[in-house]
Specification:
Blueprint: H1 10-15, H2 18-40, H3 45-56, H4 58-68, H5 74-85, H6 97-115, H7 119-126
Amino acid sequence: MYNLFAKISEDAARQLSPVTLAFVGDAVYSLYIRSKEVLCCDAKLAQLQKHTSDAVSAKGQSLLLTKIEKYFSPDEAEIFHRGRNAKKATKSKNASVTDYNRSTGFEAVLGYLYLSGNYERISQLIEGGEQ
């Protein structure tokens, strides 16, 4: 049986492709934002969808990054740069190349933190970055 909260070492997570980390990080960020919206807001589904889609979009993630990037640890900054600069198989239809690349870097950081079991740090980053 699979354990949703199984973790790997930071070194093992660091060895994964940044695009693979971003694949996981995309899901982590989406679930975090959706859960937060459902738990804090008594809203209809259409409103929930609008709020979450704005936040999880490449543009929304890039805006968040302008606030939190300065709080990245050296390891997080390195993962971010690898993700941002990684060659991607697809291109964004609704975002600038810059926003898409930055969001991929951010998602790579979240994937790295999730897979290495650093859940509290995920919350810190998403909520503003300060430790």
